[in-house]
Amino acid sequence: MGPKVLVSDKLSETAVQIFRDRGIDVDFLPDVGKDKEKLAEIIGQYDGLAIRSATKVTPTILDAATNLKVIGRAGIGTDNIDKDAASKKGVIVMNTPFGNMITTAEHAIAMMFAAARQLPEASASTHAGKWEKSKFMGTELTNKTLGVIGAGNIGGIVCDRARGLKMKVIAYDPFLSQEKAEQMQVEKVELDDLLARADFITLHVPLTDTTRNILSRENLAKTKKGVRIINCARGGLVDEEALAELLKSGHVAGAAFDVFSEEPAKENPLFNLPNVVCTPHLGAATTEAQENVALQVAEQMSNYLLDGAVENALNMPSMTAEEAKVMGPWVALAGHLGSFIGQLTDEPVKAINILYDGVVSEMNLPALNCAVVAGIMKKVNPDVNMVSAPVVAKERGIQISTTNQDKSGAFEGYIKVTVVTPERERSIAGTVFSDGKPRFIQIKGINIDAEVGEHMLYTTNEDVPGIIGTLGGILGENNVNIANFTLGRTKTGGEAIALLYVDGVVDQKVLDDLAATGLFKQIRPLSFDVA
């Protein structure tokens, strides 16, 4: 049976059809998102949940979502999803940050025109039959300096459109490289320089601890007299009270705001000022954008449920469909290595150190890290997965470190995992052969070559004669068939290990019979998810 998705908000029929075309069973119940009791009652049968802003994904809903793997938000804001609870539950939260880029950028440009020419007030005045032609003296955009704070996806489109309007564009963005700025044909500047020079300032940054109140009272005071300020990004980026004062004093000539520090905005210091344009968070509100984000979320969720591709996830490293194909065997190997050590480790884990060598060192390491940690943590929490594992590890204070290096040996690439506990360090390495099958290649520094099987038996002993016969004999007597048998040792008479791939579960009687021989230091049955 394939994956099943619930669409609990109003998504376009085209988006719903994408799920169907990809072979995903979908229930389109656009009003169930508003009925939290009904949603909690039915959510348990679904692998995916596609929403807009009406559905509230609370811990209660997540508790009932026993099969849920992914929540897809058609749009950028995910305040209606408890992301911490979703991460602990192992549910990926995706949004669609790019579906409304053009729409939001166009709204910023429209707001800039509206502020420059006082369009809303002029319209209201004309509707009232006043014909106040001399009252609404505007300003041209041509040759004016536009200061763009945040030149990422949306800011970049605004820069491009502003250049088309023959404006001079200066941009402040700590992540914008000089090369990229030159490519965009904008001048990269520091914030103080932007504040001093810009005739118009437009904000295109997310609300973070760094950007909160970026246009503070202090920074607004540094602006050029006659500046106009546009905010179509997020409320909380501008000190609205300080801006209102500067508008009243005439230092700021106009403002255009689509977002406010408190929404819905019933009252605000900027309201009812003569030179301010306000809209009710319309940045993404076009038919095209709403359709785009709906189609995008359907594609992303389908790609994840069918191919394991992770796009625009907020609580998991992204992995494209192409990466997922190439990395699939390495992700499986990373999980097996973690699982091997996890099953052998009975004491608390202090640190996990992961070494990536050769071809694998150039892959998507954050995703591989998640697979390793998930494998290790499965023993303490069988429900853990690549999403929840880092959360579980962090809660337990486990330090995770990675090293990547160029090809250093016979293998094109390998992964080595070392777990540190208060008592010891334990390490295992593995690779992926050209047939796409993961192999264990080193345990405790001893080189081996072992296929990964669903049921395995691991033993350690002193290198003495008779071990193979003893293992084969006791497993045979207990009717356990050996599919593969791998041995390794440090040196003659030194420490030796055996790793057996067997056809069924190794039960307690086998372990007791082996222990009774007195030949083995450690005897451990292992199981791996090789499906």
Describe this structure in words.
The chain has 531 residues and is α/β, with parallel strands linked by helices. It has 3 domains: 4-97 and 288-307, Rossmann fold; 101-278, NAD(P)-binding Rossmann-like Domain (Rossmann fold); 321-527, 60s Ribosomal Protein L30, Chain: A, CATH 3.30.1330. 34% of the residues lie in helices and 23% in strands. The chain has 17 helices and 22 strands. A hairpin with a 4-residue loop joins strand 15 and strand 16 (425-432). The chain is elongated, with a radius of gyration of 30 Å. Pfam families: 2-Hacid_dh, 2-Hacid_dh_C, ACT, PGDH_inter.
| Highest-level CATH class of the largest domain | Alpha Beta
Shape: elongated
Low-confidence stretches: none
Task: Provide mean pLDDT, rounded.
Answer: 93
Helix percent reads 25-40%
Helix count from the secondary structure assignment: 17
Amount of beta strand: 15-25%
- CATH architecture identity of the largest domain: 2-Layer Sandwich
- According to CATH, the homologous superfamily of the largest domain is D-3-phosphoglycerate dehydrogenase, domain 3
- When the domains are counted, the total is 3
Neighbour order of strands in the largest sheet: 8-7-6-9-10-11-12
The counted number of beta strands is: 22
Please name the CATH topology of the largest domain.
60s Ribosomal Protein L30, Chain: A
InterPro entries: ACT-like_dom_sf, ACT_dom, ASB_dom_sf, D-2-hydroxyacid_DH, D-isomer_2_OHA_DH_cat_dom, D-isomer_DH_CS, D-isomer_DH_CS1, D-isomer_DH_NAD-bd
Pathway: Amino-acid biosynthesis; L-serine biosynthesis; L-serine from 3-phospho-D-glycerate: step 1/3
Keywords: Amino-acid biosynthesis, NAD, Oxidoreductase, Serine biosynthesis
Pfam families: 2-Hacid_dh (PF00389), 2-Hacid_dh_C (PF02826), ACT (PF01842), PGDH_inter (PF19304)
